[in-house]
Design goal:
The protein starts with 8 loop residues before the first helix and ends with a helix. The chain has helices at about 10-75, 80-105, 110-175, 180-205, 205-225, 235-315. The protein has one domain: Methane Monooxygenase Hydroxylase, Chain G, domain 1 (Up-down Bundle). α1 (about 10-75) runs antiparallel to α6 (about 235-315), α3 (about 110-175) runs antiparallel to α6 (about 235-315) and α5 (about 205-225) runs antiparallel to α6 (about 235-315). The protein is built from six helices and no strands. It is mainly alpha-helical.
Length: about 325
């Protein structure tokens, strides 16, 4: 075997160039492979992770917008305005379903489990939002009907007061004050009292307040009944219509108040389920962001790989 010093210079140079060429080829090969891997990582981020992250954010935005739309729905009593709000709300529902379904279809593992759970809460959210809209519309219609009956009630009260006033005047012109005159005067006072109670009744916003007022109205009604034998038949008939209309008006107002209570209860549930769904979608978004972060780190590792290999070669 020849010693290194005996080897020709040309051979040494050729050997050195061959070694350098092999190292360069190795680096080139590793570099091309790394670039390909980095490209694959970038494709995963752009084609898979980023759309999932976007969908998670959009689904959260849709959820918040839907909840806000239902809160706004409670504030208006114009049916046309409610139709506009409902249209906006339905769009937010559609957006949530679209983005949540996209995540469920394209994600994997725990993220899919979280999305399905969020969709379950969103379904309950939708059910209560539908009931809220139903009761709010019923509240508006019942209140409008009650106001209409209030107008008829006022007309009957006016007619009764006029009839009793004319009757009282007629009696005092033809005879001295007696039981009939007293009955006419007392009946007029009772009508005033009943009208005041009815007006207060129609102004309250709680069913707990209506019960004592209804009892007070009924007590005044009984007092009026005791005077019927001293009043003309037409006045007795008019007061009977007046009383029946009053009770009908009260029932209508109570129905409106019950619908208002139901609206508030369903809004509480809308808040509850939207919050739960939102918390889960936040976890989904964080999980997807972590996947993007992991993918970026993979890309960084790929770029460093050639240099690590060269260092290892020199160590050998």
């Amino acid at each position: 075997m020849k010693k290194y010093g005996d080897i020709k210079v040309g051979t040494k140079l050729l050997t050195g160039f061959m070694i350098v060429a092999c190292i360069a080829a190795s680096i080139g090969y590793i570099g091309l492979t790394s670039i390909k891997n980095v490209g694959s990582a970038a494709d995963i981020i752009l084609d898979e992770r980023v759309p999932l992250a976007d969908s998670s954010m959009e689904s959260t935005i849709a959820l918040i917008s839907g909840r806000d739309a239902m809160a706004e729905f409670m504030l208006f009593e114009d049916l046309r305005k409610l139709d506009e709000i409902e249209k906006e709300y339905m769009k937010t529902n559609s957006d949530f379903d679209k983005h949540a379904s996209f995540i469920e279809k394209n994600a994997e593992g725990e993220i899919v489990v979280l999305v399905k759970e969020a969709q379950g809460y969103h379904t309950k959210f939708e059910e209560n939002a539908e009931k809220l809209r139903e009761h709010q519309r019923a509240h508006i219609l019942n209140e409008a009907k009650a106001d209409e009956l209030m107008g008829e009630f006022d007309a009957h009260a006016g007619t009764l007061k006029q009839m009793l006033g004319e009757y009282e005047e007629k009696l005092t012109r033809t005879k001295k004050i007696d039981k009939k005159v007293d009955a006419a005067m007392e009946s007029k006072a009772l009508i005033f009292a009943q009208k005041a109670v009815a007006e207060e009744y129609m102004g309250v916003e709680s069913l707990t307040e209506t019960k004592p007022l209804r009892e007070e109205f009924s007590a005044l009604d009984k007092q009026m009944d005791e005077l019927e034998t001293l009043l003309p038949d037409e006045m007795v008939t008019e007061h009977k219509d007046f009383s029946e209309l009053s009770l009908k008006m009260f029932d209508q107002h109570d129905a409106a108040l019950r619908d208002a209570d139901e609206t508030r209860e369903h809004m509480k549930l809308v808040d509850e389920y939207s919050t739960k769904a939102g918390e889960l979608m936040d976890k989904v978004e964080n999980g997807i962001r972590w996947k993007v972060y992991e993918c970026k780190n993979c890309g960084s590792e790929v770029w460093l790989y050639p240099f690590k290999r060269i260092i290892e070669m020199y160590k050998r």
